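Continuing the batch. This is chain 6 of the set; chains 1 through 5 are on the previous pages. Same settings as before, nothing changed between runs. Recording input and output for traceability.
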Amino acid sequence: MSEVGSRIVVYGPAGSGKTTVAASIAGSIGIPHIELDAIFWLPDWVSKSWEQFREDVSIVLAQYPEGWVCDGNYSHVRDLVLPMADTVIWLRLPFPVVFWQLLRRTVSRSVKKEVLWGNNYESLRLAFFSRDSLLLYVIRRWRRHQRLIKRDLKEIPNQARVIELHSAKEIEALLNTLGPDGSGTG
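Output for chain 6:
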């Protein structure tokens, strides 16, 4: 398999590029991509119960014994995913970069009416005029997100190699090293 292993977790705040990076890695090394948001969200932005979510994540992970790339920051399932991981890719881009990416993505998805998990849509109203705004969430939880990932990497038993990436250039360099033969050609 690849130098990153066959069970890879991608962490990072909303807007950091987790899903894009995870999908690229999965495509490059030929293993399934598991997006935790797709498992968690039901229509009309209704979330599953934590119990149901944990059960569903366990079922999905078990479906791919040959390996997977899993992205998402859900601390409620981190104890299920992290102990199985060979590698953690932790996207630690600077706040202004992440916030700009999130803002651009949110506006684009809203204007294009892009369908998301559970047939949900982002809206400009939700993004800018709601207490449930993802933009506001990222501002409020930025430091907490970093602390929780750091804590869980130490406290949840795991053997994962942790790769911290701090820039788009570092992400690109990692992706260029991947592929079935390690050539980066996927």
